[in-house]
Specification:
The protein is 31% helix and 8% strand. By secondary structure, it is α+β, with helices and mostly antiparallel strands. The chain is elongated, with a radius of gyration of 15 Å.
């Protein structure tokens, strides 16, 4: 039986894992569908230090990765080499991770009103 492990990771660690090409998205996952308002609400929740849900990773056996179909996504597109296999597959949290990456990379713009402290 598989062993489940719960661990807390700061968002910067998840971003670094993505930048190192350690995250992949299985083909069974839907593509990115979040609207601008959902992205804004996520960023605002993070700013207010509200809980933003869990991110579920799976670390499959390395021999299984050879046969898995991966979806191209903002999560996996930064892999240094197309031949590099991810260490983890994101089973839940893809919309949130992708939204954060899009904001950080400037492909989705979110504005902050300093006077009202609102996004």
């Amino acid at each position: 039986m598989a062993k489940l492990t719960r661990m807390e990771k700061p968002m910067n660690v998840i971003i670094e894992e993505r930048q190192r090409g350690e995250l992949g998205l299985p083909e069974i996952q839907r593509g990115y569908v979040w609207k601008q308002t959902q992205v804004r609400d996520l960023i605002e929740s993070m700013y207010k230090n509200y809980p933003c849900g869990l991110i579920l990773y799976w670390k499959p056996p390395s021999e299984m990765l050879d046969n898995l179909q991966l979806r191209e996504s903002a999560i996996s597109s930064s892999r240094a080499s197309a031949d590099k296999k991810p260490t983890f597959l994101v089973l839940d949290g893809q919309q949130r991770i992708t939204s954060i990456m899009r904001v950080l990379e400037g492909t989705t713009e979110v504005y902050f009103n300093v006077e009202e402290e609102k996004f």
